Amino acid sequence: MLDKSHKNVTCDTCGARRFSLFNNVSEVELNGLDHAKSCSYYKKNQALFVEGSYPRGVFCINQGKIKVFTLGDEGKEQIIHIAKQGEIIGFRSMFSEEPYKVSASTLEESNICFIGRDEFLNMIDTNQTLRNGIIKELSKELGERALFITNMAQKSVRERLAFALLILDEIYGDEQINLTREDLANFVGTATETLIRLLRDFKDEGIIETHTRKVQIINKDKLLILAGKK
Amino acid sequence: MLDKSHKNVTCDTCGARRFSLFNNVSEVELNGLDHAKSCSYYKKNQALFVEGSYPRGVFCINQGKIKVFTLGDEGKEQIIHIAKQGEIIGFRSMFSEEPYKVSASTLEESNICFIGRDEFLNMIDTNQTLRNGIIKELSKELGERALFITNMAQKSVRERLAFALLILDEIYGDEQINLTREDLANFVGTATETLIRLLRDFKDEGIIETHTRKVQIINKDKLLILAGKK
DNA sequence: CGAGCGATTGAAAAGACTCAACCACCGTGG
DNA sequence: CCACGGTGGTTGAGTCTTTTCAATCGCTCG
Known about the structure:
Chain A is α+β, with helices and mostly antiparallel strands. The first copy, chain A, has helices spanning 27-36, 92-96, 117-126, 128-154, 157-172, 181-188, 192-204, 220-226; strands at 38-42, 47-49, 57-63, 66-71, 77-83, 88-89, 103-106, 110-116, 177-178, 208-211, 214-217. In chain A, helix 3 crosses helix 4.
């Protein structure tokens, strides 16, 4: 359980910051950032922002995991990305001056700070390092998405699941992967039933273990081969 | 047939520039740009850059169409984007300081200018308008790719073809869509045979006409409905 | 303890792919 | 001018993956 009275999280001591785009910010700016931000506790499955609305600022994840997704025509979610502590999300639509193309919701209880549009844009304009970091980040993600598209278009569900598990392994680190089957299916891009059947196969093949909803990777090598990475 | 002796294309008079990121560049910078660039004629199916190599600059399309694609594990191309005159391509990997994640080749004979890495990065650093244009462009594409991923994951091939034809309609404008069936299939993300069968269906339904390899859209409304845009 | 959501299984149907063969157009060289 | 070769386009048949629908199970929270 997270501490819900965390208004006292300061950027200065924020453990997530050292991995984030804000890691090289000067003391003065950090101070400004600290005053500009406001922190909140989010319950599981709470929305940060919703497709179609206009951005009013960016979200900085101090603690927790966030799914970023679009809604298909039938209302099915397609998870594009899962963000973790240290990541800043929601700035793309601010730059493109469009409504959000994606939605974001917490996957677990989270501490998230909010930085208003003007403060953020101002920092970008005045801080070259930060700005370059953002440009680099945008470019990197663009490359990742090209790969994502190719995987979706050309790989079987089985291969995509292997790929997805490897990504999730990175994201969850020491923890076990902890997603509903539906979310996992929506990340892989398949039907929930298909996903469940494949998880069983992986289990039978000794690649993973499942503990209720949690998934633990046993044989990473096999996953790498399956995903076509080896 | 394009004029192959086009070394005389100047940024000043470049017809494509007014639609490009360079449309708001000052006279002085334009002059610098003009001296920094070098122009070349490209035959059909010529590579601009290849996945895995390192970028040495960016390409500015004066005339022609370029496919941007990744190679899947089986060597099958997945076309991510088709660029046309006025677009600048190849800058993502420069920013992310990674090797190219995608390849780019001409779909038809083209005139393309090349701008070296240093000149380009220097312009980005000193010209705020240009820089913001780039950031905006990156962000926009990121949003488009989220949609692309969702389409790939959730739509049937039939729906994706409708979607693809609408995009191509924008790109080709007055001209008729002119791609090999294989390229079209690689854009839609399907097998060539499947694509051909669906084209026939669309033809039977009065949605398109085909003239040898060229595709002409007859009933855009139906396409919009099919693609789930209406 | 019951309600309800998430997880699981089975069976049938649909969509898409593969493979193999054949056709048609186009440029080349004789 | 015509035969030839090659690439790109088309068709058919069979197979396989994946989805859909329906039903059941089981954990968790009031």
